[in-house]
Design a protein that fits this description.
The structure is a single chain. By secondary structure, this protein is an alpha/beta fold. The protein folds into two domains: 131 residues, 3-Layer(aba) Sandwich (Rossmann fold); 179 residues, Dihydrodipicolinate Reductase, domain 2 (2-Layer Sandwich), CATH 3.30.360. The protein is built from nine helices and 15 strands. The strands form two sheets. It has a nine-stranded mixed beta sheet. Helix 1 packs across helix 8 and helix 7 crosses helix 9. The protein starts with a strand and ends with a strand.
């Protein structure tokens, strides 16, 4: 049970969290604070109360805090609550730059910190993990992970050039905004030992961040993952293909379906649920976070796995800069 929840941020993802808090804990007091400290409207945000300062937020002693501000503010906004051992769910990614963690004066591993990679709760990815654990495909040789969606279509009615996604100063760009792929590839295959990458600035969107990322990630077990992220595809796409010793697995993460192909005439449908509501991943994530906040039950996206995502992001940026493979120690 949650009696009082604080959400920091008032953008689309903050509104989603507020909606799901209201749905899941209808009796809870929900409080919202703008990440910039400006006044916001109670009715507009559909909350019980809005506040302006962190001191006021701390004095309310919320049961949980959800940090849904721009990535460049995540660690700073989480700090005052973590210092008081209040459980915090930080929206993905953990931060904007890996080096932010070096000077952070809080040991995140010792506290109730969760990171919001909600695709971990997608039924399709759960089935993929089961297939890999059971060894159905045999030895895995290569993986292809692709995600693309036209940025101007993300938030209808809003100027995409003014969005967090389009601003480098706020932690925008395809690499951070679409880092779900790095999280689930790391979850499924790895840790990774080498990275080769190119980030693209097509100029088609007139923004100051990369609008595409093309990367090869080599795992310590020899699996080669081909990853593509972009803000450019007019038809939303999110797919995963795994090539194994005995067959292939094809997963559509938007349509929530999976097929196994062992030969041209032997195809097995493992999952087909095209009517799945993707908001359910956020609701399940919220429930898992609340359980994590009140018990010793582990949360799926750990601090360590989220730090590993930031290490990969740093390596991808460095590889693009140096035009070479980067070794991950």
């Amino acid at each position: 049970m949650v009696k009082r929840a604080l959400v920091i941020g008032c953008g689309s993802i903050a509104r989603r969290h507020i909606k799901n808090l209201r749905l899941t804990f209808p009796l809870a007091e929900i409080i919202c604070m703008s990440s910039s400290g400006r006044d916001i409207n109670v009715k507009e945000m559909r909350v019980n109360r809005t506040i302006v300062t962190f001191s006021e937020a701390i004095s309310l002693n919320p049961d949980i805090v959800i940090v849904a501000s721009p990535a460049s503010h995540h660690l700073a906004h989480a700090k005052p609550f973590l210092k008081r051992k209040i459980p915090v769910l930080i929206e993905k990614p953990l931060c904007a730059y890996y080096d932010e963690l070096v000077d952070y004066d809080i040991n995140l591993r010792d506290l109730k910190v969760a990171v919001g990679y909600n695709l971990r709760f997608l039924p399709a990815l759960k089935v993929v993990r089961e297939v890999l654990d059971e060894g159905v495909l045999g030895k895995i040789s290569s993986v292809f992970a692709t995600v693309g969606q036209y940025l101007p279509d993300w938030r209808p009615g809003l100027d995409y050039k003014k969005s967090v996604s389009a601003k480098r100063s706020l932690g925008g760009g395809a690499l951070l905004e679409l880092s779900h792929e790095l999280d689930y590839l790391n979850f499924l295959f790895g840790s990774f030992s080498e990275v080769l990458a190119i980030t693209g600035f097509s100029g088609l969107l007139d923004i100051d961040v990369e609008d595409s990322v093309h990367a090869l990630l080599k795992s310590k077990t020899g699996v080669i993952c081909n990853m593509h992220l972009d803000f450019l595809q007019r038809r939303p796409t999110r797919t995963l293909k795994i090539v194994g010793q005995y067959g292939n697995l094809d997963c559509d993460l938007i349509e929530n379906n999976i097929t196994l192909s062992f030969s041209s005439d032997k195809i097995e449908v493992l999952l087909c649920d095209t009517h799945y509501n993707h908001n359910d991943t956020y609701v399940e994530q919220l429930n898992a976070f609340v359980n994590f906040s009140k018990s010793d039950v582990a949360f799926s996206t750990t601090v360590d796995s989220s730090i590993e995502v930031m290490r990969l992001i740093k390596a991808i940026r460095l590889s693009d800069q140096k035009k070479m493979w980067i070794q991950l120690s």
